[in-house]
């Protein structure tokens, strides 16, 4: 289930071999080794990041490939050789960095590792405080990289040519938990939004940005000479409404005139519509709306706006898109703008599939057995079993953490309450840091989702209904809740074969012990153990089981994982 649309410079690197050096209209992009018969789960894109240094494609299995812009085309693409699974990538003008699931950051570039700029080094290990080395987020700007730790401390590494490191052609913003915005760096064109009265072209220290538009800042991104901000308010029906604000150089800010404070970009293109995503390139911006409109403005010499020509666009213009494969899920599309190219790609969620399944389970009312009431009296139904394991509880703890959670929810809106449950079910603390810090003391946030699921699985004292799978005189116990959440197919399969009250399932008798263990581990982690040796016999056997149970719709596909491990 993959779709990537590309336009812009197609020369360094040459992404699509049989196309011109400038692709001015959006076209479908496929990797060279991809074909029509290839399983769609083979290349599940999670994120694309592009800038002068390189283009990185991150896949949902935690692996990534890069196209280095100055490399010989025969060397592109190349795998990023990091032993840990990657959860986010970022590319700057002269560097790139990857954030791993373990919270480490590996980076390379001339300003990061001058002796060997093409070798990744662990830059998070350079933080002096060893207790502050778990990284939560990363961003690359020109010659610098910024790290945000789980303790909400920010660090910078690299060049300070334009004061962008904030200690004394680039600017940087920091947004704190109180929605206060600070900026520093290059300000020649007013791109920091400090106001026309500020004449300094270089702001040496983090400075608070005044006159911020009313509302919640959802995101802010910087080009070289302009900045774009996404702000959310409520409309007259109390529904969330997002608007785009801009400041900086008239050629790139969407106004056609210089602006020195963040000002709303008003256009008929945004009327009766909402903003799904936006991305700011070096000198251009693209915006995606809920009505499938792609809107752009700015620099266009290489066709990176996708308008069919190479003319500058001083004000917003709609770009004609090819028919999207998954247009019913437009909110799952994302944009990535680089220096002279652009991508629109489909990526259903920032979570792993196991976390997606947990969130989907949250919506299954037949499995909800505990009620929470919000400040406005709305009812949220949740899962007592999941909460029991996801909240910090132990035998020595007197106060019930579920009661604490109920107290917090009672003071929140329905939207905030749903975000809290999403955090609990996904370990994603980036959704709303302020909410996260309210509940982090009661969430078992250091435990991975798969570890929680394994604890539920191994707890034989739990009085939840289980499926007992009998195999060669041995019984396997699977919590019914977990199996059913993993996909619609599990639900149909297990409920159809389980007719009696014993909850016994015997259809796995065809799998050998080793194959069954692989299948079992995959259910709870979406992974295959590193130490497992995959043989052709195992692949053939599991393929029969996959076909029998129609498991090919799950994500990631078990068979694909087996093949990848076998080939590597």
TrEMBL record:
Stored InterPro entries: BTB/POZ_dom, Ran_GTPase-activating, RCC1/BLIP-II, Reg_chr_condens, SKP1/BTB/POZ_sf
Organism: Anaeramoeba ignava
Repeat (RCC) residue spans along the chain: 179-233, 292-348
Start and end residues of each BTB domain: 465-532
Gene Ontology cellular component terms for the protein in this record: cytoplasm
Name under which the protein is recorded: Btk-binding protein-related
Record Pfam families: BTB (PF00651), RCC1 (PF00415)
One Gene Ontology MF term: guanyl-nucleotide exchange factor activity
């Amino acid at each position: 289930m993959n779709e990537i649309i590309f336009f812009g410079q197609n020369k360094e690197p040459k992404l699509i071999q049989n196309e011109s050096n400038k692709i001015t209209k959006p076209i479908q992009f496929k990797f060279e080794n991809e074909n029509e018969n290839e399983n769609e789960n083979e290349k599940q894109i999670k994120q694309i990041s592009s800038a002068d240094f390189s283009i990185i494609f991150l896949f949902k299995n935690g692996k990534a490939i890069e196209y280095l812009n100055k490399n010989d085309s025969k060397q592109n693409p190349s795998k990023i050789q990091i032993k840990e699974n990657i959860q986010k990538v970022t590319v700057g003008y002269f560097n790139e960095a990857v954030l791993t699931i373990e919270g480490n950051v590996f980076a390379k570039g001339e300003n990061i590792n001058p002796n060997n700029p093409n070798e990744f080094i662990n830059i998070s290990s350079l933080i002096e405080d060893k207790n502050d080395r778990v990284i939560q987020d990363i961003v690359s700007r020109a010659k610098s990289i910024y790290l945000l730790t789980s303790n909400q401390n920010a660090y910078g590494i690299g060049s300070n040519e334009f004061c962008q490191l904030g200690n004394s052609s680039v600017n940087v913003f920091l947004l704190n938990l109180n929605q206060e915005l600070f900026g520093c760096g290059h300000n020649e064109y007013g791109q920091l939004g400090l106001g026309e009265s500020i004449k300094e072209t270089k702001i040496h220290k983090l400075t608070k940005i005044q006159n911020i538009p009313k509302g919640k800042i959802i995101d802010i991104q910087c080009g070289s000479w302009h900045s774009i901000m996404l702000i959310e308010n409520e409309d007259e029906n109390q529904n969330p409404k997002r608007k785009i604000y801009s400041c900086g150089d008239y050629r790139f800010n969407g106004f056609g005139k210089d602006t020195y404070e963040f000002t709303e970009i008003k256009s008929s293109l945004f009327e009766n519509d909402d903003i799904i995503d936006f991305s700011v390139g070096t000198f251009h911006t693209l915006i995606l709306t809920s009505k499938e409109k792609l809107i752009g403005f700015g620099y266009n010499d290489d066709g990176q706006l996708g308008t069919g020509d190479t003319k500058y666009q001083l004000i917003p213009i709609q770009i004609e898109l090819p028919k999207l494969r998954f247009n019913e899920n437009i909110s799952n599309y994302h944009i990535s703008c680089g220096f002279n190219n652009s991508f629109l790609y489909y990526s259903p969620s920032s979570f792993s599939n196991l976390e997606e399944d947990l969130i989907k389970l949250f919506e299954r009312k037949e499995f909800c057995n505990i009620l929470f009431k919000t400040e406005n009296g709305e009812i949220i139904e949740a899962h007592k079993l999941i909460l029991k394991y996801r909240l910090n509880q132990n035998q020595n703890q007197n106060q019930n953490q579920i009661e604490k959670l109920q107290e917090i929810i009672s003071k929140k809106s329905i939207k905030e309450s749903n975000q809290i449950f999403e955090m609990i079910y996904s370990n994603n603390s980036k959704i709303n840091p302020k909410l996260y810090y309210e509940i982090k003391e009661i969430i078992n946030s250091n435990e991975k989702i798969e570890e929680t699921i394994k604890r539920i699985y191994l707890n034989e004292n739990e009085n939840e209904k289980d499926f007992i799978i009998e195999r060669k005189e041995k019984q396997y116990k699977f919590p019914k809740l977990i199996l059913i959440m993993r996909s619609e197919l599990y639900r149909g399969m297990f409920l159809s074969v389980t007719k009696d009250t014993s909850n016994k399932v015997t259809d796995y008798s065809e799998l050998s012990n080793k194959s069954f263990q692989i299948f079992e581990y995959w259910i709870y982690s979406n992974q295959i153990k590193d130490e497992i040796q995959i043989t052709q016999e195992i692949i053939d056997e599991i393929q029969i089981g996959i076909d029998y149970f129609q498991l090919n719709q799950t994500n990631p596909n078990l068979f694909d994982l087996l093949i990848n491990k076998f080939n590597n």
